[in-house]
Design goal:
Shape: globular
Strand order of the largest sheet: 3-2-1-4-5-7-6
CATH architecture: 3-Layer(aba) Sandwich
Mean pLDDT: 90
Radius of gyration: 16 Å
CATH class: Alpha Beta
Distance between the termini: 33 Å
Strand content: 15-25%
Oligomer: single chain
Bound molecules: S-adenosylmethionine
């Protein structure tokens, strides 16, 4: 869970996602006005080639993993929430769904051609350690894509904070288990802006991380190549 202080407790985060798993997909569609599917498709197409060995870390209910499989990837989805994974499993029989911690991935160095994370790294207790671990399991020359909410900018900024601070928590309250959606604004505020995240990605062993913004600049897709 994210606290006001901005610190994350892994056990709290896991329990929170176990609780919101039944409403997670519906909340995604509502919060993004249906755009999340499109963003996941763009993410998968940016990095996955037919036959790529893909790790989708923090796979949750599996939508990004499935998008990567649609691009021809041979996909492993990993998450530490058993309830989120239970919603992912029926979406594909051919994806290997694994319960595990992104901060201690159960894979050898260089096991994957591609790693993806969708709306996941913001929730990881130690961002640098998480990105370093993703780099470790990627082969040199492999590609990473990180799709994540970012610090809003521009004229739409006040609208986004109204949306995240007021409307999303309210929506969460009317859905069973959705109270946890009050955590979202704090997690966005403590997360680095897009330029800072690109710099951090380079620091942990990638070349020339670049990003593009979606949704009026509230969502960033970072891509980078492992050194
Ligand atoms: C907001 S959901 C994103 C799910 C999915 N990737 C998507 O695009 O909708 C974040 C997920 O990250 C998982 N997560 C957070 N920290 C994790 C960690 N250290 N190891 C594994 N999974 C983690 C949570 O359990 C949750 O399912």
């Amino acid at each position: 869970m994210t606290h006001e202080s901005g610190t994350l407790q892994p056990e709290g985060v896991r329990t929170m996602f176990d609780r919101i798993a039944p409403v997670y997909d519906v909340m995604n569609r509502v919060m993004t006005m249906g755009l999340d599917r499109r963003w996941r498709g763009i993410t998968a197409r940016a990095v996955v080639q037919p036959g790529s060995r893909v790790l989708d870390a923090c796979c949750g209910t599996g939508d990004l993993a499935v998008a990567c499989e649609c691009e021809g990837g041979v996909v492993t989805g990993l998450d530490f929430s058993g309830e989120m994974l239970a919603r992912a499993r029926p979406k594909s029989d051919s994806i290997a769904w694994i319960e595990g911690d992104m901060l201690a991935l159960p894979f050898a160095d260089g096991s994957f051609d591609v790693v993806t994370v969708g709306f996941g790294v913001r929730n990881v207790a130690d961002l640098r350690a998480g990105l370093t671990e993703l780099r470790r399991v990627l082969r040199p020359g492999g590609r990473m894509a990180v799709l994540e909410i970012t610090q809003p900018r521009g004229v739409l900024k006040p609208f986004f904070f109204l949306w995240f601070d007021r409307i999303v928590p309210l929506l969460g309250k009317v859905l069973p288990g959705g109270k946890a959606y009050t955590y979202l604004p704090a997690s966005v505020r403590r997360f680095p802006g897009a330029e800072d995240l690109a710099a951090l990605i380079d620091e942990v062993g990638f070349d020339s991380a670049t990003f593009r913004l979606f949704g009026g600049s509230i969502v960033a897709l970072h891509t980078a190549t492992a050194r």
